[in-house]
Design brief:
The complex is a heterodimer of chains A (396) and B (475). Chain A is globular, with a radius of gyration of 20 Å. Chain A has helices spanning 9-27, 36-50, 70-83, 104-129, 146-161, 183-197, 206-216, 224-239, 255-263, 282-285, 292-304, 343-361, 366-370, 376-395; strands at residues 2-8, 51-52, 60-61, 63-67, 87-88, 93-95, 133-141, 166-173, 200-205, 243-244, 247-251, 271-277, 333-337. With 396 residues, chain A is an alpha/beta fold. In chain A, the strands form three sheets. An eight-stranded mixed sheet of chain A has the order 6-4-1-7-8-9-12-13, with helices on both faces. Chain A is built from 14 helices and 13 strands. Chain A starts with a strand and ends with a helix. Chain B is an alpha/beta fold and 475 residues long. Chain B has helices at residues 10-31, 39-42, 79-86, 109-133, 151-166, 188-202, 211-226, 256-274, 283-290, 316-326, 356-366, 406-421, 426-430, 437-459, and strands spanning 3-9, 45-49, 57-58, 67-69, 71-75, 98-100, 138-146, 171-178, 205-210, 300-304, 342-352, 371-372, 380-385, 394-402. A six-stranded parallel sheet of chain B has the order 6-5-1-7-8-9. In chain B, strands 10, 11, 12, 13 and 14 form a five-stranded mixed sheet that branches. In chain B, strands 3-2-4 form a three-stranded antiparallel sheet, with no helix packed on it. In chain B, helix 6 packs across helix 12, helix 6 (188-202) packs across helix 14 (437-459) and helix 12 packs antiparallel against helix 14 (437-459). Chain B is globular. The N and C termini of chain B lie far apart (48 Å). The chains are: A alpha/beta (396), B alpha/beta (475).
């Protein structure tokens, strides 16, 4: 079954490119530890999920790229085409001239409705190309205007039009000390709207990924492409085909459905995080050996202490809930988990709510949002919803 | 990709504008090796086939044939504009983009605003509409003028109102040169205060600059360059300090170097919107992030580096120096002390090979020494553009919305009051039809209100962060 990816905004498009690149290289990598037949089955399964065939053999990613200004989309499309190994569909993108200006209200209330038809048409075309649709994977950031505003709008639309398909939103939590000044407002509005319309929210924090790059991968000057690659690596682990109960050579057919089934038992608790090991630079890989037992043990430790990395674990024990069958191919291991130590995330969110609250009390920046129809009541609604979610998590 | 139109008014505005276009051409020449008219160039230039008669057919793609600046040049006396049109930049401007008169405004805001405003309103509207039509998607008007004179301040601010009515959705970014206290124009306080009222009400964003700071910067650079302390770090031919390689090869005029700095400011401001980068920042994001309340839209700018660094692979220490410099008083384009005042918001626009980790490291490092308003403790807006400016490997433009602009306004108001109490020179203004004493009093009260708002924010400086109770909900 196939997954259609929607990449929104600068962040979404940059990450989306890395994700497809990683998925492709992973399934076509030459260092296989398994037999040839296994490799082929794996390749076929992966390909079916994320790529569709073209005449001259170059796979086309099942993706729709949306941005309100042309620079990033042009870059992404050309990077993909230049690599020669895979590319995006020729018309699978939607782009405007003037961005959303970091304004959630502009993205949601102005750009969204204005371009609703074109965007939904593009998605429709991708969906028709699939034999059977597993669901949608929407990549967006929360701090900006396009990713967050249009992302929320599109997710809502998908909920209306494709009510039976699952939607997983990959959201990027901005750095604590600001990338965008109004990021708290944008994040709160996005989260509250997504909570109502999405099926699962997979959260990645820029801060955490940055630390991974710095500590574990020893990159001296970390750029956004490094961060995106680590992210893509983690996402790849989540989505690569997994053995099903029938035994090897048969992969599970419904990636999103399986994930949701195990991880989102109750619609109130939708936020997911990823823990991935091992994470190290390519150079160190040659000098390390792994055993399954060791990796699993490490992973369990990470889960219990809610750490995102292997080092610097802070020991406060809370029991975790679930795990997933490990992946077959590379020596990778990940647990996509949802457990009470998501309270960490809830606390982060709480802090955001509070600082957004403070800002709102003094009405800072509000005129920028009311210009486009988001009034104070909308903010209040969002706060309330999120407080409720935070409270439910605390009660667990 | 969006387009912007530059409107340059008055002697000061036109001179700065001239430097700006020169610099813009150089920058694009350095970046655009193939001579293809791409979207980056189209933000400031039109590609015109001069063989076609009339307006020149606009070519949207393909090789560059002849570039015309998206500009409107306005001056009420002919000297400056004529000089531009006879200089090496004459091909960049269209004769249909000019509005000139003979006699000038006589350093009188009322002449500029009321008399010439009404006289030329139609023409101005027509030229603006023409420029807008040539644009696919017009995003912003950049207005360059001085506050102390007659045309720049009077007609310039009249223009703002016209722009607001005619193009309400297009941003208006104003670069204003404020008069320094030793200004040679005696009535400059009157002109400035009258203009400030218009800026308060009709501009989206104002970048105040004063001549004294520019002069200090230039003297400092000259000192370093001429004193022979030229270690490998300073290249005398950077884009900022010298016009070597510029089209205007004649003898350096005294304001050239200073105008160059302002031109650099405008280029850096728009660089992330024109060129690619890993974290883009468009012009509408500037207004969105840096203007928390509609009245407080005055941004103090500072630019580094002001001289070239010769190495290509800068070790992180030099990079950090660039960030520290941006927050030091020496690099600010306006005399102010942001470190001891309250920051409402701050934007860092980085160009060149700088990565996000460098940016984060420096923000962490500098944050403790800067005071931010309580509800915006993490108030940073950052952008990374991969294209460095010409002659440098990287550069940083810091825009701060800070209460340190208050002393400048207070001083301006004092100078105004000194003159006004004695009613000195007032008759020149009151002679103009439509001008009354109430204009003056309104202008002063508008400025006082602005100062009051800044005062209120400053008062919260010493208060501890109030703990606002969380929204409690029934479970």
């Amino acid at each position: 079954m196939s997954i259609v990816t929607v990449q929104l905004g600068q962040c979404g498009n940059q990450i989306g490119f890395e994700v497809f690149d990683t998925l492709f290289s992973d399934s076509h990598s030459s260092q296989g530890l398994c037999s040839k037949r296994e490799n082929e089955a794996y390749q076929a399964s992966c390909k079916e999920r994320f790529f569709s065939e073209e005449e001259n053999g170059v796979p086309i990613a099942r993706a729709v790229l949306v941005d309100m200004e042309p620079k990033v989309i042009n870059q992404t499309l050309s990077k993909a085409a230049q690599s020669g190994r895979w590319k995006y569909g020729q018309h699978a993108y939607f782009c405007q001239k003037q961005g959303s200006g970091n304004n959630w209200a502009y993205g949601y209330s102005v750009h969204g409705p204005r371009h609703e038809e074109s965007i939904m048409n593009l998605i429709q075309k991708e969906v028709e190309k699939c034999d059977s649709l597993s669901g949608f994977f929407i990549i967006m950031s929360m701090a900006g205007g396009t990713g967050s505003g249009i992302g929320a709008f599109v997710t809502q639309n998908l909920q209306d039009h494709y009510a039976h398909s699952l939607k997983m939103n990959q959201i990027i939590w901005p750095y604590g000390t600001g990338e965008v000044i109004v990021q708290n407002y944008n994040s709160i509005l996005t989260l509250s709207h997504l909570y109502r319309s999405s099926d699962a929210l997979l959260v990645h924090e820029n801060d955490a990924v940055h630390k991974i790059c710095a500590k574990l991968m020893n990159i001296k000057q970390i750029s956004f492409s490094d961060i995106n690659q680590v992210l893509a690596h983690q996402l790849g682990s989540v989505f690569q085909p997994v053995y099903s109960a029938e035994g090897s050579f048969h992969y599970r057919r419904n990636p999103l459905g399986d994930l949701m089934e195990n991880l989102v038992p109750h619609p109130e608790f939708k936020m997911l995080g990823v823990r991935n090991i091992p994470q190290m630079s390519e150079n160190s890989l040659a000098y390390s050996t792994f055993t399954w037992a060791g990796l699993l043990k490490h992973l369990r430790q990470m889960l219990i202490s809610n750490a995102k990395m292997e080092e610097g674990i802070d020991w406060q024990v809370r029991p975790p809930i679930s795990g997933l069958p490990p992946l077959g191919k590379m020596p990778l291991n990940k647990e996509l988990h949802f457990n009470t130590s998501i309270a960490n995330l809830a606390i982060l969110r709480g802090k955001d709510v509070q600082s957004a609250d403070l800002g709102k009390k003094l009405r800072a920046y509000l005129h920028q949002y009311t210009k486009f129809g988001i009034e104070e009541e909308d903010f209040l609604d969002s706060f309330t919803l999120l407080e409720q979610v935070v409270a439910s998590y605390y009660n667990l | 990709m969006t387009q912007s139109v530059v409107v340059q008014i008055g002697q000061c505005g036109n001179q700065i504008g001239c430097c700006f276009w020169d610099l813009a051409l150089r920058e694009h020449a350095a970046v655009n090796q193939k001579g293809i008219y791409d979207e980056a160039i189209s933000s400031f230039f039109r590609n015109v086939d001069t063989r076609v008669a009339g307006d020149g057919g606009s070519i949207s793609k393909g090789k560059i044939s002849s570039l015309k600046a998206r500009a409107v040049l306005i001056d009420m006396e002919e000297g400056v504009v004529n000089e531009i049109l006879q200089g090496p930049l004459r091909d960049v401007f269209d004769s249909k983009q000019l509005i000139t008169d003979i006699s000038g405004s006589g350093n009188n805001w009322a002449m500029g605003h009321k008399v010439f405003g009404s006289l030329y309103q139609e023409q101005i509207l027509e030229k603006l509409r023409k420029s807008a039509e040539h644009c696919d998607c017009l995003q912003c008007f950049f207005i360059i003028h001085s506050m102390g004179g007659g045309t720049g301040s009077g007609l310039g601010t009249f223009l703002l109102k016209v722009l607001e009515d005619e193009f309400p959705e297009v941003y208006r970014f104003v670069t204003s040169i404020y008069p320094s206290s030793e200004d040679d124009v005696i009535t400059s306080p009157y002109n400035s205060i009258l203009a400030m009222k218009e800026l308060n009400e009709h501009a989206d964003c104002v970048l105040p600059i004063d001549n004294q700071s520019l002069f200090d910067i230039i003297s400092k650079i000259d000192l370093v360059v001429n004193s022979g302390k030229l270690d490998t770090t300073v290249k005398p031919k950077s884009l900022v300090t010298s016009s070597a390689g510029a089209l205007k090869k004649q003898h350096k005029k005294p304001f050239d170097a200073m105008n160059n700095i302002v031109a650099n400011l405008l280029l850096n401001l728009t660089s992330s919107a024109r060129f690619e980068g890993s974290l883009n920042m468009d012009l509408n994001e500037i207004s969105m992030n840096l203007v928390p309340f509609p009245q407080l839209h005055y941004l103090v700018s500072s630019l580094t580096p002001l001289y070239t660094l010769a190495d290509v692979n800068i070790p992180p220490r030099r990079l950090d120096q660039m960030f520290s410099d941006a927050f030091s008083k020496d690099h600010q384009l306006m005399r102010a002390d942001p470190k001891h005042s309250l920051y409402l918001a701050c934007a860092l626009m980085v160009r060149g090979n700088v990565q996000i980790s460098d940016l984060r490291r420096n923000i962490e490092r500098l944050k403790p020494s800067l005071r931010f308003v309580s509800w915006n403790q993490e108030g940073w807006k950052t952008s990374l553009c991969s294209v460095p400016p010409v002659g440098h490997s990287h550069s940083l433009l810091a825009l701060a919305n800070n209460t340190c602009v208050k002393p400048t306004f207070v001083e301006l108001r004092e100078r105004f009051m000194r003159l006004y109490k004695k009613k000195a020179h007032l008759h020149h203004y009151l002679q103009v039809e439509g001008m009354e004493e109430s204009c003056f009093t309104e202008a002063v009260s508008s400025l006082s209100a602005l100062i009051q708002e800044y005062n209120q924010l400053d008062a919260t400086k010493s208060m501890p962060v109030a703990d606002i109770p969380r929204l409690s909900i029934a479970m």
